[in-house]
């Protein structure tokens, strides 16, 4: 809970800073791409070994200019974090133990609040960092055995996810008001998303590396 309050406080402080920058430009855009995601720590099922998987991220973005070099970047993203594992099962005859490949999808709504430093003239290069708040809207496990099987274990996980985000990227102007961006972004979860009791030594945290392509349109103040 303390981490949750700290992150919310940081978001409020950054938002307050922007509210006083009334003469600055606002950029609105979309961004999306693929991610490489994993879960750190111990699963509620001690027999389950999870490997990293490939997911995706997509959403809208907002950038508020504070100075020529400093801005606040935020947005609302749909991020699918995926992991892979081997599922043990017994065939329909009930006699032959087998294994099959399976994967878990964790679908989050993610709100990052990032301080961004930009440099460059025509081509822009930037770094950004800050907290993010995630909310788990869906969790699905999928396995292929004799037939495809889909089931959800969302009751085993906390809905909230809190963490830190850092990234670096570049932007190339398309015209006077539009820019194409490419960013490599790392999301590191700091909050235990597992609901399992401490007696089973369960402590699971998210991590994802995102490659994001975006386009932004700048609304310039007169």
Secondary-structure blueprint of this entry?
Elements: H1 2-19, E1 26-42, E2 51-65, E3 70-90, E4 97-119, E5 124-144, E6 148-151, E7 160-173, E8 178-189, E9 203-219
Antiparallel strand pairs: 1-2, 1-9, 2-3, 3-4, 4-5, 5-6, 5-7, 7-8, 8-9
Signal peptide: 1-21
Protein name: Porin family protein
Organism: Pontibacter anaerobius
Can you describe this structure in just a few lines?
This protein has about 220 residues and is mainly beta. Helices cover about 10% and strands about 65% of the residues. It has one helix at about 1-20, and strands at about 25-40, 50-65, 70-90, 95-120, 125-145, 150, 160-175, 180-190, 205-220.
Morphology: elongated
The percent range for helix content is under 10%
Question: In percent terms, what proportion of residues is strand?
Answer: over 45%
Task: List the domain count as a whole number.
Answer: 1
């Amino acid at each position: 809970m303390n981490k949750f309050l700290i992150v919310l406080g940081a978001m409020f402080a950054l938002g307050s800073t922007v509210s006083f920058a009334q003469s600055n430009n606002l950029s609105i855009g979309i961004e999306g791409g693929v991610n490489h995601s994993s879960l750190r720590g111990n699963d509620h099922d001690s027999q389950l070994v999870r490997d990293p998987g490939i997911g995706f991220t997509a959403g809208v973005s907002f950038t508020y200019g504070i100075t020529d070099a400093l801005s606040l970047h935020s947005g609302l993203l749909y991020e699918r974090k995926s992991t892979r594992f081997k599922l043990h099962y017994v065939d329909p005859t009930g006699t032959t133990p087998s294994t099959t490949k399976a994967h878990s999808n964790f679908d989050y709504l993610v709100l990052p609040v990032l301080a961004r430093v930009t440099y460059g003239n025509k081509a822009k290069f930037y770094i950004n960092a800050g907290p993010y708040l995630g909310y788990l809207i869906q969790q699905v496990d999928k396995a292929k055995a004799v037939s495809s099987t889909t089931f959800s274990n969302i009751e085993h996980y906390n809905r909230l996810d809190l963490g830190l985000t850092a990234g670096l990227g570049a932007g190339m102007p398309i015209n006077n008001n539009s820019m194409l961006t490419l960013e490599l972004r790392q999301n590191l979860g700091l909050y235990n998303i597992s609901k399992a009791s401490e007696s089973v030594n369960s402590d699971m945290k998210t991590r994802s590396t995102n490659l994001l392509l975006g386009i932004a349109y700048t609304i310039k103040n007169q």
